[in-house]
Amino acid sequence: MTTLNQQPLSHLDWLEAEAIHILREVAGQCANPVLLFSGGKDSLCILRLAEKAFRPGRFPFPLMHIDTGHNYQEVINFRDQRAAELGERLIVRSVEDSIKRGSVVLKSADESRNKHQSVTLLEAIEEFGFDCCIGGARRDEEKARAKERIMSFRDEFGQWDPKNQRPELWNLYNARSHKGENIRAFPISNWTEMDVWQYIEREQLGLPSIYFAHNRDVVLRNGAIFPVNVPLANGEIINQPKAGETVESQLVRFRTVGDITCTAPVPSDADTLSKIVLETATTTITERGATRLDDQTSDASMEQRKKEGYF
Amino acid sequence: MSQIENLAVQTPAHNDSLLRFMTCGSVDDGKSTLIGRLLYDTKTILADTLTQIERTSKKRGLEAVDLSLLTDGLQAEREQGITIDVAYRYFSTGTRKYIIADAPGHEQYTRNMVTAASTANLAIILIDARKGVLTQTRRHSYLAQLVGIPHIVVAINKMDLVDYSQAEFERIRASYLEFAEQINLQRSGRDITFVPMSALNGDMIVDRGDSMPWYQGPTMLELLEAAPAAHSERAEPFRFPVQFVCRPQASDNPELHDFRGFMGRVESGDIQVGDEVTALPSGLSSRVKAIQLGEAKLEQAITEQSVTLLLADEIDISRGDMIVRKNEAPSPVKQINAMVCWLSETALSPARTYIIRHTTRETKAKVGEIAYKIDVNTTEQLAAEGSLGMNDIASISFKLAQPLMVDRYENNRATGAFIIIDEASNNTVGAGMIQAAV
């Protein structure tokens, strides 16, 4: 007997179902996939989706973090804690090691390591022979991502060629690759920043504390709030204020979490998930516009980095 | 007055509905301006993005902000001034989330239109009020019909350039309906709605404006808000292609040693605990013992929900198999006729073997016969000569190495669709819609 569905899935349920479907397609089609996990909000959503996709079984892929060495300690701790709670294998590969090997050469000691993650990622892909990396990129984040596929093809050099992407129809994904090539799979492509926060709120997901309002030493640099005097795990203090800058303690939170040297917080008193959702609904600045200092160099800078193999 | 003026300060609900739609038209029809307007008037565009396009507009010597710049994508395209791929955009009204598939409208981009249409439940077809129904209007309408989009909104744009004339609107409406009749567009419950508008001035998109008091119908946004979401409109048989089999034997929990979960997405219909089911192609039957989402137990699963099914009996099921209801199973077939849109720059070669991916199943396939090609501009059937090039649409028969469990595309967009993969390059080279199982 066939019955008519009275009520289709709500938007969050639909997005969840789509993402689970994509994760299972990766598991079904790829021989050796990996889930990129930074401890950030988008990848925490993907972990919850993977639980819904594969429990009571184990994840059919390990987790991997490409660590720039310039990550907030709270986030790194949270990353390790979450992986341990889930009982899943976490691989960490660091840009620091690529620097030691000589495959990453910094122009200056305080240069942002964000773009160098690409090199370390490609080295790790080769080391483990991964044929697919699952990531938390969303199409609403940046113009260059609006045309990104859910299964995005990268050649042997990890390069993304916008003209050489496979058409993607219905929900029939093509994750096939030859040896050495790589697929990047984006299960939350169709989510917006608001969807992510709503999902975190609905699922009551834990988050690193720096997503919530807290007091932090900041300076005003190039028109943005810039975090200073940030301690690293090894005791080193980075982001020293420059001469002439006035350090003040401000109530801030992070909308996005990344490399300390290029991720800025926003002024905020939102200290609960529901306050963050409300703040996200009323903000007048995009997530990247407010927080990612490295995207502002040129209108097309994200596209440039993607072509070079950036996630 | 804006109906969503206060939208930005409401706490959004978790249970908004979702609509996926596409826009058909060329840059000249004001398509990018329409999308820009929808994003702008629903306050999706934030201040920094707006500042960026204001700067670009000034650089190009424009007086007003060019909203079409919002949907401008990649560097190469920006330099060429054209859009050459499908872009996805998002906005939300506080009651509904929207995913727009934005495809360019030129003839050489038929494949992009088909791609965008494949996930859409509504198509907006743009007509320039000064030009009326053109060849491209026919092409867009035919493709929307071919790919099975149930709701068509004909947006007669640039009304400001014809003095907001009701007579012009009615004339274009009549001429479109005449053409729709010819291609049988309203067949099988497909509906067509017309709305006059000016994307440039924002009339009848989100706000009504003051220029067309003669039009009493819904605005564009009201039409989008009222359109049914996919799958809520008609009863479809239960189809559950298996994506992955979960067997956590090694688990510490002894209760899980016999756990066999069949993981997949309900592509159509629904299923409840206790229902009798059949696994295909084996034809073995059992009963649904439990339905799970992660470790949570559900009583039923509905269309588009991703779940795990547990069956009462131990039957052998693997990825690529399909679970259906006992009395409404499709027959496994080894030959199909399908309308195919060729997507690749490399022409179809009847001598080669391709891979067909249908739901979660793959099989090798050989081209049997190309019955006819379609002229997308006139919708006429042409004699099939030689091969298929990029953007060609043709009716083709395939011989399959493995059986597929198919429905006609007309009856089921999920189990009637497939993609064609080139084994050598791994590229997706064709999109197929099944006309008949043989």
Structural features, described:
The complex is a heterodimer of chains A (311) and B (438). Chain A has 2 domains: 11-194 and 301-307, HUPs (Rossmann fold, 3-Layer(aba) Sandwich), CATH 3.40.50.620; 208-295, no CATH class. In chain A, 32% of the residues lie in helices and 16% in strands. Chain A has helices at 11-29, 41-54, 73-86, 95-101, 117-128, 193-203, 273-282, 287-291, 301-307; strands spanning 33-36, 63-67, 90-94, 132-134, 151-154, 182-185, 214-221, 224-227, 230-231, 237-238, 248-253, 266-267. In chain A, a hairpin with a 5-residue loop joins strand 9 (230-231) and strand 10. In chain A, helix 1 (11-29) crosses helix 2 (41-54). Chain B has 3 domains: 7-226, 3-Layer(aba) Sandwich (Rossmann fold); 239-328, Translation factors (Elongation Factor Tu (Ef-tu), domain 3); 332-437, Beta Barrel (Elongation Factor Tu (Ef-tu), domain 3). Helices cover 17% and strands 34% of the residues of chain B. Chain B has helices at residues 31-41, 47-59, 75-80, 110-118, 135-146, 166-182, 220-226, and strands at 17-24, 87-92, 96-102, 122-128, 151-157, 191-196, 239-246, 261-265, 271-272, 276-280, 285-293, 296-298, 300-301, 306-311, 322-325, 332-342, 353-358, 361-374, 381-383, 393-405, 417-421, 428-437. In chain B, the strands form 4 sheets. In chain B, strands 2-3-1-4-5-6 form a 6-stranded mixed β-sheet, with helices on both faces. In chain B, strands 7-8-14-11-10-15 form a 6-stranded antiparallel barrel. A 6-stranded antiparallel barrel of chain B has the order 16-20-18-17-21-22. In chain B, strand 17 and strand 18 (361-374) form a beta hairpin. Chain B is globular. The chains are: A alpha/beta (311), B alpha+beta (438). At the A-B interface, helix 1, helix 2, helix 6 and helix 7 of A face helix 2, helix 3, strand 2, strand 3 and helix 4 of B.
